[in-house]
Design brief:
The structure is a single chain. Strands 1-2-6-3-7-18 form a six-stranded mixed β-sheet, sandwiched between helices. The protein is α+β, with helices and mostly antiparallel strands. The radius of gyration is 24 Å and the shape is elongated. Strand 4 and strand 5 form a beta hairpin. The protein starts with a helix and ends with a helix. The protein has two domains: 267 residues, 3-Layer(aba) Sandwich (Aminopeptidase), CATH 3.40.630.10; 112 residues, Alpha-Beta Plaits (2-Layer Sandwich), CATH 3.30.70.
């Protein structure tokens, strides 16, 4: 059994359903401190459900002269298991079947964390006078609200004057085989809760009421048909989708007084949140609606073009696997959206994502060491 697999097993064995860390960061620190890492634990959030974060850095010999800092970023929390009886083996007991390692967090993203740590151990051992700096930014609040995790650590890093030059987030990005895709950007996410006001009344006397469903329907249809932008070479067009609609008291003879609609924009770099908000509100106003919107900006889009980080990772993937990796910005959001606000180069790379968040989550055992080797080669190409 390799060091990477041993550490993966130990991490999976620590139940860490968000926002719990389950002792994962302490375990990781026990590997990093002997290498000379300065480790800082940052705890945020409510006392009854605290979020544990870790910033750890080993400064290179050339740090004072501007040598780059490469950050490994990730999360130690996992999503809930779902019904235990539906799992073939216990989700927090690492199990092997048919060449696969099973357990909650196996793909998302405890094997990535283990691979990053072991890659760092090997890199430091082989290059004790490495010029660039290596850092880890870990949180137990990625699968949850993401308000007391990476975003708070990034604010703290800015206050400390810490410089980040490149970052690899260990999210599961591969599609069919390890290394076939890395994410070099993500779309932004802008959500809203729309409340359209009407006048409640008896359904037999519609002239004495105002039905917000009827009033809002034409506006909602227009919003669903809008082309918000055409996207660009790196991003698909911005999309607008409704996720929930609710109105009514439950009775079939009462016209409701309010309609509530939850919606979300996934937007490219061709649009700003302010532009999208303004255009949407203009449509609602033009339809004469009485409305209120509570807006939530989940994250702005980011893009890392070809350069030192993308080129180093692509070359490492090619050398280890023989694959010419694909750059992609598809999919949901990640903590990369926060890190990109303080770091000019951010990419995501990790295992095959087919089983993430599912019952019997797993990774191929044969993919674990190649992933560690890709991380190590990237360190060597950027920091040696």
């Amino acid at each position: 059994m390799t060091a990477t697999v041993r550490l993966t097993e130990a991490l999976i064995s620590r139940a860490s359903v968000t926002p719990e860390d389950g002792g994962c960061q302490d375990l990781i620190m026990s590997h990093l401190k002997p290498l000379g890492f300065e480790c800082t634990t940052l705890t945020y959030g409510p006392q009854n459900a605290p979020v544990i974060n870790l910033w750890a850095i080993k400064r290179g010999a050339g740090h004072a002269n501007g040598a780059p800092t490469l950050v490994f970023a990730g999360h130690t929390d996992v999503v809930p298991t779902g019904p235990l009886e539906n799992w073939t083996s216990h989700p927090f007991t690492p199990s092997y079947r048919d060449g696969m390692l099973y357990g909650r967090g196996a793909a998302d993203m405890k094997t990535s964390l283990a691979a990053m740590v072991v890659a760092t151990e090997e890199f430091v051992a082989a290059n004790p006078q490495h010029q660039g700096s290596v850092a880890f930014l870990l949180t137990s609040d990625e699968e949850g609200p993401s308000v007391d995790g990476t975003v708070k650590v990034c604010e703290w890093l800015q206050q400390q004057g810490e410089r980040l030059d490149a970052c690899i987030v260990g999210e599961p990005t591969s599609v069919k085989s390890v290394g076939d895709m890395i994410k070099n950007g993500r779309r932004g996410s802008l959500s809203g809760k729309l409340r359209v006001q009407g006048v409640q009344g008896h359904i037999a006397y519609p002239h004495l009421a105002k039905n917000p469903i009827h009033l809002a329907a034409p506006a909602l249809a227009e919003l669903a048909a809008i082309t918000w932008d055409a996207g660009n070479d790196h991003f698909p067009p911005t999309s607008w989708q409704m996720s929930n609609i609710h109105a009514g008291t439950g009775a079939n003879n009462v016209i409701p007084g309010e309609l509530v609609v939850d919606f979300n924009f996934r937007f490219s770099t061709e649009s700003t949140p302010e532009q999208l908000q303004s255009r949407l509100e203009e449509v609602l106003s033009r339809h004469g609606l009485s409305f209120k919107i509570d807006w939530t900006l989940g994250g702005r889009p980011f893009l890392t073009r070809r350069g030192p980080l993308v080129d180093a990772m692509a070359a490492a993937i090619k050398d280890v696997t023989g694959i010419d990796t694909e750059l992609s910005t598809t999919g949901g959001t990640s903590d990369g959206r926060f890190i990109a606000q303080i770091c000019p180069q951010v990419v995501e790379f990790g295992p095959v994502n087919a089983s993430i968040h599912k019952i019997d989550e797993h990774v191929a055992v044969a993919d674990i060491e190649p992933r560690k080797n890709i991380y190590r080669q990237t360190l060597e190409r950027l920091l040696k």
